[in-house]
């Protein structure tokens, strides 16, 4: 089996897939698509993902897989060990819900196409744009903190004592917080879970600033 991941160091959705692949011990080649230079809009990549977003995963010679959570579900179904979902239906629903707070509700508000629209169509200057990015990044983390602090299913990780899809998504949102200088001091459980995630080799190796082509310091 061969896997090709179209990603980019700055893409938080690419981090989610990269972390899952590494956690499950799956070999893959990563093809960088530079979001900062607009490579995602070039015809070659649009033929792979017409939406011009990252990531995309090609397994063998199959059609490209797209959307990070859908790819994580595919990896879970085809390579179930180690698992990223609990064994019980209620637990799986909780983990998926926590993951969607990030991947479906918050992250889409801070991606490059939204930033460009704010600047080019809404004529927002950089400080206003950065307030938008920080606000929606923080909102998701506040909600995650509430869930983690009030629900008995929380353990060392978001759900129990083993990592799940929810932890991959939480970690991606904390990296966004670092990019946009969001203060996490009021979110101790989020920080604790993130720290637990980063003791795992796959999470550490997958992180944005350890990805090929990354700068030494994060940028907006």
SSE order = EHEHEEHHHHHHH
The CATH class designation of the largest domain is Mainly Alpha
Distance between the termini: 36 Å
Low-confidence stretches: none
Integer average pLDDT: 95
CATH fold label of the largest domain:
Glutathione S-transferase Yfyf (Class Pi), Chain A, domain 2
Rg, please? 17 Å
Give the name of the CATH architecture of the largest domain. Up-down Bundle
Q: In one word, what is the shape?
A: globular
The tally of structural domains comes to: 2
Largest sheet: 4 strands, mixed
Could you provide a short overview of the structure?
The protein is α+β, with helices and mostly antiparallel strands and 220 residues long.
What does this structure look like?
This protein has 220 residues and is an alpha+beta fold. The protein folds into two domains: 3-82, Glutaredoxin, CATH 3.40.30; 89-209, Glutathione S-transferase Yfyf (Class Pi), Chain A, domain 2, CATH 1.20.1050. 50% of the residues lie in helices and 7% in strands. The protein contains nine helices and four strands, in the order βαβαββααααααα. β3 and β4 (65-66) form a beta hairpin. The termini are far apart.
């Amino acid at each position: 089996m061969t896997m090709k991941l179209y990603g980019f160091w700055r893409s938080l959705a690419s981090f989610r897939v990269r972390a899952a692949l590494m956690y499950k011990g799956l070999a893959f080649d990563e093809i960088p698509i530079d979001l900062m230079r607009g490579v995602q809009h070039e015809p070659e990549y649009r033929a792979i993902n017409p939406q011009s977003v990252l990531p995309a995963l090609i397994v063998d010679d199959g059609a490209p897989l797209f959307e990070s959570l859908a790819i994580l579900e595919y990896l879970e179904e085809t390579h179930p060990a180690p698992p990223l979902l609990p064994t019980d239906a209620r637990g799986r629903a909780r983990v998926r819900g926590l993951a969607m707070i990030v991947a479906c509700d918050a992250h889409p508000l801070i991606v490059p196409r939204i930033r460009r629209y704010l600047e080019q169509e809404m004529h927002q200057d950089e400080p206003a744009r950065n307030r938008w990015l920080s606000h929606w990044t923080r909102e998701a983390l506040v909600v995650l903190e509430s869930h983690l602090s009030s629900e008995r299913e929380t353990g060392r990780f978001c759900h129990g004592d083993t990592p799940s899809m929810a932890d991959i998504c939480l970690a991606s949102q904390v990296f966004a917080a670092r990019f946009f200088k969001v203060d996490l001091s009021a979110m101790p459980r989020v920080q604790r879970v993130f720290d637990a995630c980063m003791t795992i080799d796959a999470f550490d190796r997958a992180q944005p600033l350890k990805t090929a082509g990354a700068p030494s310091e994060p940028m907006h």
